């Protein structure tokens, strides 16, 4: 039992049981080939899968990949192949979730077999933001729950989502958390006891809505001394401050429907101006070459791909004066060597500082490797991004809440 509140694998008898496990194997993919470029989450989840397949009868796996409308919204056939490498057992894959094909595949499973169903986000109902009771009436839960004995949630990195596959089974099926979730919770519980003041959060990556929600929650709970804004998020802050970022970057924000966050960001800037630092210069992408410009030189005729050297210097000073640092996502387009500088320099500064450092985001382990750093260079590298920040902000994580609520089932 974790903290006397959440059932773990150790609390249940799995012998001969059919287990449904929800993992988070959402992985970064190459934009063009759609090939998975980092298998860290699959490797981590495989540990729970191996354990469950050893102690129970049949193991059915559900998971999501990407988001509707994004290039990484793909099926899970590649994941099955990669998982096989780590689990060292055949992983059957069926390109269905709740249709007859999936139901038949489950019914035909033999003892000790492992079956991966397809991307649960292919179901419209999955991502509806509903309560666990309402999600327990979803087609997903109604179809799969009669076919299973135990539901295991091992998706800590998605625990900030109230989605059907994450919170819908607990009200109707005996449930517990898996080892990945348990290990993250144990580590974070222990590490957060060492937290103190002078806490800064560095927001990067492309998940603007998440960054915004998390920043709002941190600022309103007074859990933050400084927010350093990077990535795509920074471009909306520049706009909100009245800078003309230039047509190519503006168009990108427009295409990705990110301009709707402008008014919220303006409000945050007015209310918490002294707590938020935005870039003082940027690096534009001129046909693959890095060109740094100050904010006075805006608008840029090219897309902005990174923060500039002056911003790196300014942010490094703040980093060096902090005692706890949380970094979510990359600082710029780290995938391209020319625009890796922001990510590399900021992470180097975080590691060189004496602060307690938390790194989060699905790509983080991959990024660290890419910039020749190691997991050990930081206090903790979490496989979760949004869930990590939500946890550190003290917000209620729907999955954790649901696990506690239905613990005695
Ligand atoms: C993540 O990568 O943070 C989790 O897999 C959740 O994905 P999401 O942000 O698309 O819900």
Topology at a glance:
Elements: E1 18-22, H1 40-55, E2 58-62, H2 77-87, E3 91-93, H3 100-107, E4 114-116, H4 132-135, H5 139-144, E5 150-153, H6 164-167, E6 174-177, H7 179-192, E7 199-203, H8 208-220, E8 226-229, H9 231-240, H10 247-255, H11 262-271, E9 276-277, E10 281-286, E11 289-294, E12 304-307, H12 309-320, E13 324-328, H13 341-352, E14 356-360, H14 364-370, E15 380-381, H15 386-392, H16 398-405
Parallel strand pairs: 1-2, 1-5, 2-4, 3-4, 5-6, 7-8, 7-13, 8-9, 13-14, 14-15
Antiparallel strand pairs: 10-11, 10-12
Helix pairs in contact: 1-2, 9-11, 12-13
Bound molecules: 3-phosphoglyceric acid.
3-phosphoglyceric acid (3PG) binds next to loops.
Question: What does the model show?
Answer:
This protein has 409 residues and is an alpha/beta fold. The chain folds into two domains: 9-186 and 396-405, Phosphoglycerate kinase, N-terminal domain (Rossmann fold), CATH 3.40.50.1260; 199-354, Phosphoglycerate kinase, N-terminal domain (Rossmann fold), CATH 3.40.50. The protein is 37% helix and 15% strand. It contains 16 helices and 15 strands. The strands form three sheets. It has a six-stranded parallel beta sheet with strand order 3-4-2-1-5-6. The protein has a six-stranded parallel beta sheet with strand order 9-8-7-13-14-15, sandwiched between helices. α9 (231-240) crosses α11 (262-271) and α12 runs parallel beside α13. It is globular, with a radius of gyration of 22 Å. 50% of the residues are buried.
């Amino acid at each position: 039992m974790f903290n006397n509140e959440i059932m773990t694998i150790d609390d249940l008898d799995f012998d001969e049981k059919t287990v449904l496990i929800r993992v988070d194997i959402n992985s970064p993919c190459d934009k063009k080939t759609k090939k998975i470029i980092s298998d860290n989450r699959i490797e981590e989840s495989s540990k729970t899968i191996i354990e469950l397949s050893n102690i129970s009868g049949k193991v059915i796996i559900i998971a999501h990949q990407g988001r509707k409308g994004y290039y990484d919204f793909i099926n899970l056939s590649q994941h099955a192949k990669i998982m096989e490498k780590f689990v060292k057992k055949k992983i059957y894959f069926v390109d269905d979730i709740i249709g007859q094909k999936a139901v038949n595949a489950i019914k035909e499973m033999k003892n000790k077999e492992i079956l991966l169903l397809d991307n649960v986000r292919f179901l419209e109902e999955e991502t509806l933001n509903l309560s666990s009771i309402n999600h327990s009436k979803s087609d997903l839960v109604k179809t799969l729950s009669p076919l299973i004995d135990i539901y295991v949630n091992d998706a800590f990195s998605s625990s900030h989502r109230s989605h059907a596959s994450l919170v819908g089974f607990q009200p109707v099926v005996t449930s517990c958390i898996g080892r990945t979730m348990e290990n993250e919770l144990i580590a974070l519980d222990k590490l957060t006891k060492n937290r103190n003041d002078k806490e800064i959060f560095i927001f990067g990556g492309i998940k603007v809505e998440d960054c915004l929600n998390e920043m709002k929650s941190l600022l309103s709970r007074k859990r933050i001394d400084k927010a350093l804004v990077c990535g795509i998020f920074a471009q909306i802050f520049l706009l909100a401050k009245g800078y003309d970022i230039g047509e190519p970057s503006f168009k990108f924000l427009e295409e990705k429907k990110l301009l709707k966050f402008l008014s919220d960001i303006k409000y945050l800037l007015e209310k918490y101006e002294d707590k938020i630092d935005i870039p003082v210069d940027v690096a534009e992408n001129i046909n693959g070459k890095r060109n740094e410009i100050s904010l006075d030189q805006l608008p840029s005729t090219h897309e902005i791909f990174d923060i500039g050297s002056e911003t790196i210097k300014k942010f490094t000073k703040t980093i060096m004066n902090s005692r706890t640092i949380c970094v979510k996502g990359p600082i710029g387009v780290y995938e391209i060597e020319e625009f890796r500088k922001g990510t590399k320099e900021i992470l180097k500064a975080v590691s060189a500082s004496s602060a307690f450092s938390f790194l989060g985001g699905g790509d983080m382990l991959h990024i660290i490797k890419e910039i020749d750093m190691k997991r050990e260079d930081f206090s903790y590298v979490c496989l979760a991004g949004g869930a990590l920040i939500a946890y550190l902000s003290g917000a209620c994580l729907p999955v954790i809440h649901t696990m506690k609520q239905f613990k005695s089932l």
